Amino acid sequence: MFTSKKLSASHKDLIHDVSYDFYGRRLATCSSDQTVQVWDLDSDEQWKPTAQWKSHSGSVWRVTWAHPEFGQVLATCSFDRTVAIWEEQVNERKTGQSSSETHWVLKASLVDSRTSVNDVKFAPRHLGLMLATCSSDGKLRIYEAPDVMNLSQWPLMHVLSCKIGTSCLSWNPSRAHPPMIIIGTDDPSQAATTHIQIFEFSGDPKKWINIHSIVGVVFEPVHDIAFAPNLGRTHHILAIASKDVDIIHLVPEGTDSSGHTKLEVRTPAQLDHKGSQVWRVEWNVTGTILATAADDGCIRLHKANYQGTWQCISSFHGDGSVSTPAPIPPLAGTPSATSSATALSAMGNSHLWRELGDL
């Protein structure tokens, strides 16, 4: 049984992104009003705003949490062409009795992009404290903090040319495969063959290689993209947000003569959103439920049955109501779903799932 709660954010403009922390007990939002707001779940299971500050001089497109092993750290990216790294600091104070207060401090500002930075993501924990950014100048940039105790230093480790303006990225969370990043573009002038590119890290030499472009699958601008967590699967699952949502399986088929992974692309499902543009996709920690958000104002949860048929299992509407569509009869070989807001991180309260997924 899914329920919803409505939060009254104090943003004065559009909210572009919502991000839960690893345990699902904190969330951050960012907006065109140039601010970031942080919320905490209290002992009564109520969300309380605990901080808000101006983070950029332009619209803030994305906000993301680092793994808590590295502290309470946020990264944001903006139309002002920068990426900001923020760290929460706690100050002890006495006002009759012992108490504390927190505030967020700007630790670093990454200014390498010449155009809007459209997405920023921290790497999976096992890769260390790294982050990737993509921007409208067609560059995928990868940074690393060499000293996790000094977050003011983020040397630029790799700059990859995508030859297209990029809109979104996702790290492959699998520990059993080489590091992999996928990028998408929302440039409507680009050919369908260049909407999605996949990069893999090669240990010898130590550099990122463009190993695959997904061709003939997505024909519309890509707004968001997400690897599903991989708990023992031999293949990777992707969700791609565009006019609809495409579910893609990437099946490793050995390596080529250069030692790079060869991938077979399979498209088991497309989730029809009845004309609504899909802006965000996110998986739960086990990679079994997909949340989508589109411009019709609804968040929908989707799940595949044992035959691989996808269906909408719940819908969250802008007025706070929740509906559960009638089950779709399983039809072998017939991928189907009905689905369809802007900012999304609907998988946040899965505390045990998040812990399980990191084991």
From TrEMBL:
<keyword id="KW-0853">WD repeat</keyword>
<dbReference type="GO" id="GO:0005764">
    <property type="term" value="C:lysosome"/>
</dbReference>
<dbReference type="InterPro" id="IPR015943">
    <property type="entry name" value="WD40/YVTN_repeat-like_dom_sf"/>
</dbReference>
<comment type="similarity">
    <text>Belongs to the WD repeat SEC13 family.</text>
</comment>
<dbReference type="GO" id="GO:0035859">
    <property type="term" value="C:Seh1-associated complex"/>
</dbReference>
<dbReference type="InterPro" id="IPR020472">
    <property type="entry name" value="WD40_PAC1"/>
</dbReference>
<dbReference type="InterPro" id="IPR019775">
    <property type="entry name" value="WD40_repeat_CS"/>
</dbReference>
<protein>
    <submittedName>
        <fullName>Uncharacterized protein</fullName>
    </submittedName>
</protein>
<dbReference type="GO" id="GO:0034198">
    <property type="term" value="P:cellular response to amino acid starvation"/>
</dbReference>
<dbReference type="GO" id="GO:0015031">
    <property type="term" value="P:protein transport"/>
</dbReference>
<feature type="repeat" description="WD">
    <location>
        <begin position="53"/>
        <end position="87"/>
    </location>
</feature>
<keyword id="KW-0498">Mitosis</keyword>
<keyword id="KW-0677">Repeat</keyword>
<dbReference type="InterPro" id="IPR037363">
    <property type="entry name" value="Sec13/Seh1_fam"/>
</dbReference>
<dbReference type="Pfam" id="PF00400">
    <property type="entry name" value="WD40"/>
</dbReference>
<dbReference type="InterPro" id="IPR036322">
    <property type="entry name" value="WD40_repeat_dom_sf"/>
</dbReference>
<dbReference type="GO" id="GO:0051301">
    <property type="term" value="P:cell division"/>
</dbReference>
<dbReference type="GO" id="GO:1904263">
    <property type="term" value="P:positive regulation of TORC1 signaling"/>
</dbReference>
<keyword id="KW-0131">Cell cycle</keyword>
<keyword id="KW-0458">Lysosome</keyword>
<keyword id="KW-0653">Protein transport</keyword>
<keyword id="KW-0813">Transport</keyword>
<dbReference type="GO" id="GO:0005198">
    <property type="term" value="F:structural molecule activity"/>
</dbReference>
<dbReference type="InterPro" id="IPR001680">
    <property type="entry name" value="WD40_rpt"/>
</dbReference>
<keyword id="KW-0132">Cell division</keyword>
<feature type="repeat" description="WD">
    <location>
        <begin position="8"/>
        <end position="49"/>
    </location>
</feature>
<dbReference type="GO" id="GO:0031080">
    <property type="term" value="C:nuclear pore outer ring"/>
</dbReference>
<keyword id="KW-0539">Nucleus</keyword>
